[in-house]
Amino acid sequence: MPRVKVARKSTSIDMTAMCDVAFLLLTFFILTAKPRTEDPVQVDIPASSIEQPVPDDNMLMLTVGEGKVFFSVDGNDIRKQTLIQMGEKYKINFTPEEQIKFSGLPVFGVPIAQLKGFLALEPDQRKEFKQPGIPRDTTNNNELSDWIREARKADVALHNKSLRISIKGDNKEEYPVIKDVITVFQKQKINKFNLVTTLRAAPKK
Amino acid sequence: MAELDTSSGGGKKGGKVRSKKASTRVDLTAMVDLAFLLITFFMLTTTLAKPKAMDVTMPDKDEKVKDELAVAASRSMTILLGSNNKVEWFIGEPGKTPPETTSYGKDGLRKVLIENGEKVQQSTGKYMTVLIKPSDKSNYKNVVDVLDEMNITKVQSYAIVDITPGEVELLKRDGNY
Q1: Number of CB pairs < 8 Å for A and B?
Q2: pTM above 0.80, yes or no
């Protein structure tokens, strides 16, 4: 009986198609990637059924967590201009080097008196540094309200747009802190703002 | 696919001495490995679920001018947010109607809102106004939850208002503060 011969085939597979797909996906993910800004405190944002996405630019966001308020505003030029205006207001002279450092800072939460020291730190140290949050006492002109006002002025001056204001708060944050922030808004006649939420996993009907 | 046609054209016999042609096939395995590694990295670092923005409009708070609109007590509903994810609600003025304690979510607050909204609509022919009063013991999630319920139940007019001491007493009495 003749033995059945199994034809030996090469085990190498044509990788071209796979390579094409892989690079197509890679290109897609690279182009859609947006660097995530690290929050200085853990912020677990609440869920809601709202489906309106957060606007991409022209945003002023206040991150609220652990009883502290952190300030962030989009656009390097706006950040720089805001710092210059704040320096004038508080009689602190920021060097051009500090201005550049500040304009690359996505989010911060230190009193303005400590800002110079904070900017002098190395980026690694800055991450480690426990930021105390921006002071927000109940007087009419607290630092938080000054930051917001100067940022709004800078945006109007540079881009002739009005900033969109939003609050990104932690689930467990006590209401009085949020109320303080809203009070600051209302004193500046900001009656319309956004709350940042995530989409609830399954909308219950 | 990834190789070029290197076969000699035709079957010439005893022709010229040909230089041996090396195969142009490239091993793509390493390249694919690298590509998938990068894909994995970018997939894990991108945020696919974009955060959503909830619009909030606060009533104008002018210290000098008082232009508050009086709302008939019969069609105003007050929601008091207490501690431990408890919420109390009543229709009309505080003290006159006993408040009821309920929870957040579809069986608690949502049901109450829909039922009372219909009731008010039928009896007065106008929509219900909801006053949201978060107490100092409530947290941010509660506020967002209530605002979300307003959107789900399509309550047309609602506002976040400061809580009064009398209403804090109500919460305290029911052990929700």
Answers
A1: 154
A2: no
